[in-house]
Design a protein that fits this description.
By secondary structure, the protein is mainly β. It has two helices and ten strands; from the N terminus they run E-E-E-E-E-E-H-E-E-E-E-H. It is extended and about 80 Å long.
């Protein structure tokens, strides 16, 4: 239900329900406008035709078209700033496949160069076309008081989380030339 608000000071608006659908809970109504005070407006009066709302039986559902977002897979420590350093990633998984862990090791990450200007490190964000995977278990390594690297741990507690992470890593490795080497 919507009526023009700019005429509210000059007129009163009455809403009169016309049809209440019991199944959907939708109320279709019309707006009536009644003049209550004289106006200094000197323009020509206009008459707008009443819009007829289609009945619920004539409404047709729109066919949905899937939209594919092409996002370059990236890792970020500060949201909006891609990490340029390619990490060493170690994966572990339980024998039954119910959970797993990924350990990211970054040597001399580029976030140290810009973290003072851009913002604070709030976690590790793994971004691709499916969305964002976030881990807040991020630790910095220091040598002689200077930042040397970052170690981030991402824990996957379900097979679904593991599969989602592996889809991200497949995209990220294709983009950055990484390859999987199985431990012997």
């Amino acid at each position: 239900m919507a009526c023009v608000r700019s005429i509210a000071s000059l007129t009163s608006v009455t809403h009169s329900p016309r049809h209440v659908s019991r199944t959907s809970g939708i109320v279709m109504s019309s707006c009536s406008v009644h003049a209550i005070t004289p106006s200094s407006f000197t323009g020509s009066p206009i008459s707008l035709p009443r819009l007829h709302t289609p009945s619920p039986t004539t409404l047709r559902p729109r066919s949905l078209v899937p939209i594919t977002m092409m996002v370059k897979p990236s890792l970020q420590f500060i949201q909006g700033t891609d990490e340029l350093t390619i990490p060493d990633v170690k994966l572990t998984r339980s024998r039954d496949g119910s959970n797993g862990m990924a350990l990211f090791s970054f040597d001399q990450p580029s976030v140290f160069d810009s973290s003072g200007e851009v913002g604070e490190i709030t976690g590790l964000y793994m971004i691709d076309e499916e969305g964002v995977i976030q881990s807040t278990d991020v630790n910095a390594r220091f040598v002689n008081g200077k930042p040397e690297g970052i170690v981030a741990k991402h824990v996957m507690r379900t097979p679904k989380e593991w599969d989602r992470f592996m889809r991200f890593m497949e995209r990220y490795s294709d983009q950055n030339g990484l390859q999987f080497v199985k431990k012997q």
